[in-house]
Design a protein that fits this description.
single chain, 549 residues, alpha+beta, D-Maltodextrin-Binding Protein, domain 2, 3 domains, 14 strands, 44% helix, 11% strand, globular
């Protein structure tokens, strides 16, 4: 019944769109037969640019609704983006009052799915539309467009987004990333700067290492020695701990990459797509963490550890090593402890390898296009031209400064042509730089991140980026913006759901010792029965098509 209702709603939306198209065409034809504009061009009722203008602030009294996550740091101060200094400045600069709807941070995927199923769509949605993972739109952008959920943006970018259009024309690789295989643009993209591609990796207590006369570990063997010392000599209850929320084991590919595999899909040395959790060598990783779990080196409560729990374990000395973010982990924890324990020190550690001196097979490295914080315009938008104009402001010179640095004179000032954060931001006695920045700018979203923006407050952060960058991740990371066809996406959605659920269930069982390692082959057989080989084939086809764009 639910499926029939959903299909009925989609068909109704398509019908409405078709009727609107017929009405629109009749208006256009009527315009052609009754006269022209003063410039001699036929009247086009769909082009409202003459009404709202092409400069900011726009000439409009209209508003619309934007569905997007509110930055975790901003939540410290405000419950809605419109209330922040950034939100108020954006409304003033663009002339558009936007109503923001923020999903619960822990239930974003569930609330997104409910919103789509309800057929009650906002005008624009900031979300991952790629269809690549369980946390993105099922079927990807081509299906979202075909379903009548979001609009194809080619004409809108061409007519109403000159700033974004200019960037896409100047960067062919970026242009290739942000559209489908058939050439359809579907979002206003988040564009990372080159220095912002690496921001996650292993983190370890350097003050503990110094006390124990131990070097920063680089190999699996050295890590084992270090974790034993943390447990035995520092009293760490969970020497190594990571978050595990929503089926996401946030160790990502640290330690796993040491065995030349991945915790998900990856590209091997022959440029072929593989699924790491069925590789023979993945068993070696599971055996390692099973051993560490049994010996108390890996957190006994890892399956229950969310962000707040990990914060507590790091800050209270229960944990001496983890895998986390540059600012939201290393920087946050150093900042929290700088007065409480001046000796407390964290550093980034290299991604572990088996052999000393080996370049890590993979690690965290993203691409310049970040799908997650990118915005699509939905078919429910009453004035999509206005939405497009509003979104394009972020890619203008003026908009870029607001999105990246905030409000001049309040959050930043110009020093010899370079934006510099004010004391309010960088020397706040109560709040961290990241917390303060989140009020005045948009840490993630549809705009281009400025190369001059740097949220690092400790030299250890700058050094961590250099260390974490020394991997072959660029070669082995499967792009997050591949676009399977509609039919492929239907297959992929079911396969990934079934495989992910089973894989995560068995992952925990293997590590905690509830499943014998002798059953690994049976586990692989079951994942293959669930269709993983077909999923690999679909991704390979999508990768091949992407490379041919």
């Amino acid at each position: 019944m639910d499926r029939r209702l959903r299909i009925g709603k989609i068909l109704l939306r398509r019908f409405k769109a078709a009727v609107s198209s017929v009405l629109l065409m009749s208006l256009i034809l009527a315009g052609c037969s009754t006269g022209s504009t003063e410039e001699g061009e036929p009247k086009d009722q769909a082009d409202s640019s003459s009404d709202i203008g092409s400069t900011y602030p726009l000439k409009t009294s209209e508003g619309f609704t934007s569905w997007e996550a509110l930055n975790n740091n901003a939540v410290t101060f405000y419950s809605n983006l419109a209330e922040t200094p950034f939100g108020k400045a954006l409304a003033e600069k663009t002339g558009v009052n936007v109503k923001y709807v923020h999903p619960n941070d822990q239930q974003t995927k569930e609330q997104f799915n409910l919103m789509i199923a309800s057929d009650e769509l906002p005008d624009t949605v900031e979300y991952d539309w790629t269809g690549r993972s369980a946390g993105s739109y099922p079927g990807g952008p081509e299906k979202a467009i075909k379903d009548g959920v979001i609009l194809e943006l080619n004409d809108f970018i061409d007519k109403y987004a000159p700033n974004l259009k200019k960037k896409l024309e100047a960067d062919k690789e970026l242009d290739k990333m942000v559209k489908t295989d058939s050439g359809k643009y579907y979002v206003f993209p988040m564009i990372r700067n080159p220095s912002g591609l690496v921001f996650r990796g292993p983190i370890i207590r350097k003050d503990w290492l110094d006390d124990l006369n131990l070097p920063v570990p680089t190999t699996i063997a050295e890590w084992e020695t270090t974790l034993k010392a943390f447990k035995d000599q520092k009293g760490a209850k969970a020497p190594l701990s990571v978050t595990y929320t929503g089926g996401n084991f946030e160790i990502r590919d640290a330690f796993i990459g040491a065995y030349h595999t991945s915790n998900s899909f990856y590209i091997d040395d022959e440029d072929k797509v593989k699924y790491g959790p069925v590789d023979p060598q993945y068993k070696d990783f599971l055996a390692l963490f099973r051993k560490w779990f049994a010996e108390g080196l890996f957190d006994k409560d890892f399956a229950l550890t969310d962000g707040k729990a990990l914060d507590n374990k790091i800050l209270t000395g229960q944990t001496g090593a983890t895998v986390s973010l540059l600012s939201g982990g290393l920087g946050k924890w150093m900042d929290a402890m700088k007065k409480q324990d001046p000796k407390f020190k964290l550093v980034g550690a290299p991604y572990p390898t088996i052999k000393k001196g080996e370049v890590p097979f993979t690690g965290q490295r993203d691409f310049k296009y970040n799908p997650g914080p990118s915005k699509a315009i939905t078919t429910a938008a009453k004035n999509p031209e206005l939405v497009a104009r509003w979104l394009d402001y972020a890619y203008s010179d003026e908009g870029a400064m607001l999105f990246n640095f905030g409000i001049e004179g309040e959050s930043y000032s110009m020093d010899n042509g370079t934006p510099v954060y004010t004391d309010l931001i960088k020397n706040n006695e109560k709040y961290s730089l990241q917390q303060m920045v989140s009020q005045y700018s948009k840490p993630n979203g549809p705009y281009e991140a400025d190369e001059r923006r740097n949220w690092n407050t400790f030299p250890e952060q700058d050094e961590a980026v250099k260390i974490w960058s020394q991997t072959d991740a660029e070669k082995h990371t499967l792009p997050a913006f591949l676009t399977p066809t509609d039919e492929e996406s239907k297959e992929l959605g079911k396969i990934l759901t079934d495989v992910s659920n089973y894989k995560e269930e068995m992952f925990v069982k293997f590590i905690v010792g509830k499943e014998p390692m002798e059953n690994y082959d049976a586990y692989v057989t079951q994942i293959k029965k669930l269709g993983i080989d077909r999923a690999v084939e679909i991704y390979q086809n999508a990768l091949d098509r992407y490379n041919e764009r």
